[in-house]
Structure formats: C-alpha cells, structure tokens
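Entry 12.
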Amino acid sequence: MQTSRNVLTPDALLMMDAIARTGSFAAAARELGKVPSSLTYSVRQLEDALDVLLFDRRSRQARLTAAGTELLHEGRRLLEQIDAVANRVKRVATGWETQLTIAVDGVCSRLTMFELCEAFYTLNPGTRLRLRTEVLAGTWEALVTGQADLAIGVGLGDSFPGGVQVKELGSVRFVFAVAPHHPLAARTTPITDAELVNHRAVAVADSAQRLAPLTVNLLPGQDVLTVASIQHKIEALLRCMGCGFVPEPMVHDHVDAGRLVVKTMERPSRLPKIGYAWRNPDPSAPGAARKPQLGLALKWWLGQLDSPTTRTALLQHHGQVPLAGM
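Predicted 3D structure (tokens):
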C-alpha cells in the first residue's frame, strides 16, 4: 500500500482538478489524454493511501465527498504554490533576490513605504519583501548585523559603520508639542530646561539590542513615559500624558486642528539629517566575480530613492494608511 506522500503528487492533484471541473471521469480522461480506467485506478490509490472516500459512488456523476472537496481546494492551493516557487527560482536565476528585508525608521512615512511596495509588486518579481520598523540606533543595527539589506531613515552622524554605502534622504524638523490643556501650553515665553525637567516627557524606546541605544532630548531626573513608536508617542501627547519633541510633518494636522500646541524652547531646535544605507557586496565571497554586485530588487529600491520626490515623500507625506476594504 502506498503512503499519502507517494500518491499526493502534482499529477494526482491535477487529475482531481480535471475531474471536478469536467464533472466526469470520462471527460477528465479525454482532457488529460488518458483512458477512464487509468483515472479510476489512480483515484482508488489516493483513497487507499488517505483512507477516505473522495467520490460518492452512488452518483453517476463524479460527485465529491466532503473529504474530496477538501483535497480539491488544498490541492489547487498547493499547485499554485508550486508554480510560485518555480517562478521565484526563475527570477533568482536572472538576478532577483529571494527575499529583501528593509529596515524603516519610525520617522519615515508608512504611507509612502506602502506605495513603494505596491509599485514594486507590479513588476511581479520573485522577491519577497520583509519590512521592519526600527527606532534610532536600531535602524543601523538591523543593517550592520545582516538582519536587513536596506535601511531607510538612519541618522547621519560624523561617522558610519564600515562596509556600508550611505546617501542622504533629507532633514526632519522636530517641534516641542503638548496638548492644549497641558500646563506648558499657556507659556508665552521660551521654555527652559529648568522648567521642563518638572514635566513628564514621552520618549520612544530605541530598538537597538546590541548597539548602544540613543537617548535624545531627555533631562537627568525627568519623569519619562517610554513607548514603542512615534505614533504611540503622538497618541500619548494628545491624551496629555506628557510632552516631547516630535517630527513636525507627523503632527502638522493635529497642530492645525488645535489638538496639539507647538511651544518655543530656549534650547536650539533640532534639524537632524536622515539617510538611507545598504551593505557593500563582499568581493571575497565565492563566485562574487561572476555575480552582479547588487541584486535587482535592491537596485530597484535604490533607484526609487534616487528620486527627490520619493525622498521628500518619505519624510513629509504622512497620513492614515487605509484599511483593506475601506
């Protein structure tokens, strides 16, 4: 007796699909170029191996049982996956990466990232995208530790990790914001650090696990509410749970609507430069001389980032990401 693994072949699944579509063993046999007795024998092999009945023998037509219907649905799904694997293998052979992982700092526009992903998928590449949301040093860490192939939104300091290429994305203006009913909202003069230390700050936790995490705009002795993302920080500010610096493009609508108030600080405002980075190919890797230096998927993303319009959108075009079906 054959095992289920031996009989559940692509040919057997195609046979089940043909019988279900044509409605009879005879019609399926004509479509597949076989004799009906051959299909009947193959179906009995399937039934014996699975220990189920796939067709109702009381009907003259090829009527599926519940078990047969389940096998038909799952079989069609498996056939689609087999075709997808074959397509991905062909794409990889032409230079498309199997998977591309992109680490995106929380300061970047989620809306623009999804628009870029949509444009990428129109190419029908054999590359699977994986997006990671990181914060501060965590964006660099994902790249230099090999967990990401491309990092968007890295901070541009005086030095960069070795073995990477870096380009500037642009600058982001940070503003100090509070809810309208926060005690600092009524201040008419610039706020000093001596006064700020008495009010709870809302901070986003650095996602770095190995690199030294960064701390920005926090004062010694100041009470801190730590959250996981800039979106969470803005929500906490709206609820008057603290105060803090946020990217101006991300709170522009809240400020215009009066839900947040921007206050002037005595200390200089921040205008940090943001960039994107990717790892240099290893020339000493086996076969490196015969392979393209960069995969086609990474090249496509770098080509998009070369556009000033794309770079501006990533830092300025913030908004609600629509839900599916909305």
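Annotation: The CA atoms of residues 99 and 128 lie 4 Å apart. The chain has three domains: 4-93, 99-171+273-316, 174-263.
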